[in-house]
Amino acid sequence: MQLEDVDFADDLVLLSHTQQQMQEKMTNVAVASAAIGLNIHKGRSKVLSYNTACTNPITIDGEDLEDVKTFTYLGSIIDEEGGS
């Protein structure tokens, strides 16, 4: 079994194997959200690369998302080594 994303209420984690796939997922989420009147808070949206080089920034509506080494999801700290 392979996770594609993790959702809880208004928190979403997208998972992908490639940078291109991540950008496609991010674009799809942004389009679907806009279609029902929801806005993605770009300042709170982050990118964490694990075991991959991210050569181009992931964007929403042309704005680069911040690359981070750790983030907190539902109280758990996730890091670029895959630990929590």
Task: List the keywords.
84 residues; alpha+beta; two-stranded antiparallel sheet; two-stranded parallel ribbon; 8 strands; globular
Describe this structure in words.
It is a single chain. This protein is an alpha+beta fold. The chain has one domain (5-79). The protein is built from 1 helix and 8 strands, in the order E-E-H-E-E-E-E-E-E. The strands form 4 sheets. It has a two-stranded antiparallel ribbon with strand order 1-2. The longest helix has 17 residues, at 19-35. The chain is globular. The relative contact order is 0.17.
Topology:
Elements: E1 5-8, E2 11-14, H1 19-35, E3 46-47, E4 59-60, E5 63-64, E6 66-67, E7 70-73, E8 76-79
Parallel strand pairs: 3-6
Antiparallel strand pairs: 1-2, 4-5, 7-8
Helix vs. strand class: alpha+beta
Instruction: Please state the CA-atom Rg, rounded to the nearest Å.
Output: 13 Å
Shape: globular
- So what's the oligomer here? single chain
Write down how many β-strands occur, each being a DSSP E stretch of 2 or more residues. 8
Number of domains: 1
Q: In angstroms, what separates the terminal alpha carbons?
A: 20 Å
* Unreliable spans: none
Main beta sheet strand tally, sense and closure: 2 strands, antiparallel
Kindly state the mean pLDDT as a whole number?
85
Query: Would you list the SSEs in sequence order as H and E?
Result: EEHEEEEEE
Number of helices, counting only DSSP H or I runs of 4 residues or more:
1
Strand content range: 25-35%
Strand order of the largest sheet: 1-2
**What is the share of helical residues?**
10-25%
